[in-house]
Amino acid sequence: MDSPVGHYYWIRNMLKINNLRASVEGKPILNGLSLEVNAGEVHAVMGPNGSGKSTLANVLAGRDQYEVTSGTVTFKGRELLEVEPEIRAREGLFLAFQYPVEIPGVSNVHMLKAALNAMRTHQGEKELDAVSFLKLIKEKAELVGMKQEFLYRAVNEGFSGGEKKRNEVLQMSLFEPLLSVLDETDSGLDIDALRIVAEGINSLRSPERAMLVVTHYQRLLDYIEPDFVHVLAHGRIIRSGGKELAIELEEHGYGWVEEHACTA
Amino acid sequence: MDKTETDMNEQIDTEEHLESLTQREYKEGFVTDIDADTLPPGLDEDIIRTISTKKEEPEFLLEWRLNAYRNWLKMREPDWPHLHYPKIDFQEISYFSAPKQKKLLDSLDEVDPKLLETYEKLGIPLDEQKALAGVKVAVDAVFDSVSVATTFKETLAEAGVIFCPLSEAVTDYPELVQQYLGSVVPPGDNYYAALNSAVYSEGSFVYVPKGVRCPMELSTYFRINAMNTGQFERTLIIADEDSYVSYLEGCTAPMRDENQLHAAVVELVAMKGAEIKYSTVQNWYPGDENGKGGIYNFVTKRGVCKGEGSKISWTQVETGSAITWKYPSVVLEGDNSVGEFYSVALTGNYQQADTGTKMVHVGKNARSTIISKGISAGHGQNSYRGLVKILKGAENARNYSQCDSLLMGDKCGAHTFPYIEVKNPDAVVEHEATTSKISEDQLFYCRQRGLSEEDAVSMIVNGFCKEVFKELPMEFAVEAQKLLSISLEGAVG
Fold first, then answer.
1. Is A63 on the interface with B (CB under 8 A)?
2. pLDDT at position B104 over 90
3. Which residue, of A153, B34, B149, B436, has the fewest CB within 10 Å?
4. Which of residues 424-483 of B touch A (CB under 8 A)?
């Protein structure tokens, strides 16, 4: 598709992963993974530790240490894998990190403003000035239940696990990405935080956006109802289904799906 | 807007990143083509007499210079710094250069337009009318060996503040100069201070009378222009009882293949209850990416907290020079006095810096703080060298030192040489040191948020330096951040 970049165009084919193989430090992790995500859909990717969930998220975001050995990925109909990480981000691909990093001395607002304006510039929009930005970020902070003082603290520095995740969701709701990849955003959250974070995520659901929710546990899916659930094992998707698959998983565990997949 | 909101806006503005990363080179590297009166290279007593005559100095100053020179001849160039450079031939340097002008200037209108243009290009406001629109900073502009203009002199005079070229002070306030010149850094203090004392040609003089809070920032802007010329300026600031002054210093030089020597001396005197805040953004030409050219910067800066409850604070951002050798120090004579040193030193390409401070506790209950941030990139070598000395009578002394090093790449180096001498058992001296690298994780995180790698590095480094930048006056802080970003260009990857 040759449509202009921008959040205003409805692009049906958001993400198309075809037979993707990737390795980390020479060790194969993804072994022929295929997945299609269309606009308006929320996909959950579930799997046990070491199944390749985080690798998938990082490959999509373009992290260096993850080496793609074969396969293709298109984002909005265009080849993704050769694109620099910052360009992917500016094009509307967002990764909510499993372990958000601390950046001492750089205040949250400062980084978020620089980031948002980098994206806006890329999309041909005017940069936001400090006043408009503050107004916007305060609204968003309220939406995800973040205290304002966190906006002025150094990025993630001294944040608890839950606060860091909340900060990720804050960024997501600020950037309004076309495709959000959430890498175990639920881990380390207590139930109240989980609910607020899920509300933040749900508020972004819309016909022109898509989400890929990577999680180990079913409990996040109590709050974010997926359209599709995929089970990842040994670097490939072994089973796909509707939201009921998540419930089955919860009941029977991953071993059951793997067995089931082998005999099927 | 409520107050916190205003603060927050300011916070964002101060932190605001360099958006125009367009100026990729040393933009101050131009040469002003101007007729100059330059002495031939070489150094002997005749040269010193000539300088003294040119400056129409009183006899005592000539004697003072000659003494310093005779001392210097007996001294050896220090070999202890962690610096490597070819031996300097002091006979190849010219010790005086001044733009030609026919008579004494009465107003700015009479300054050579080429000089005005030079400072305009550098963004230094010499036109008071223009400056009025913005933030008020009084500027003394020193071009090679002479001061070309000092602004806001009258406004300052109303408050009783004296701000003028040192040579003018020698004529107008000889007692003050005679009393204090060399009182903090004696002519024989060290090799470079002795050389400076013998040949210094210009600098700024500040006197803030009792109880006066200087109504504006004072600033001296040093510019080396002439080729093969050393710059030897000397600054003397006296803050009388219960006064306050904030002083800024900036410096640039043209790009040249040859190294040029800069050996300055700065002396600060703070009387009882007085406070001096001295900020430097040092941006002398650092040499090219192969280490060719650049300024050799050998500077002695020292302040004495003479009176009770006085305070001296040094803040420096050192991004320029091929070689930096400086240790802005505080002698805490007064009881309850405070000494501070905040430093960011960046060495990229083949730059070398050996910098730090000395805090000498003499009086009782004195406190000193040292925050040093060293950034090494390319083949840069960065050393922190600091002395904390607690004398026997310095009861209840407190010192806190923090030295953080940031390494970028694997060809650079960071070194820390802390010296601690404690003669009084009450003293509490703390020293913390860290060395880190910009992590892949941090870079990737920023890039995933749409920031280019260069902007990400610049943001992370600025964050690393924040504790120091926040000590700088606002406009200077912004300038320092820009400078850092430009200096970091190409340091990644």
1. yes
2. no
3. B436
4. 439-442, 444-453, 455, 459-460, 462-467
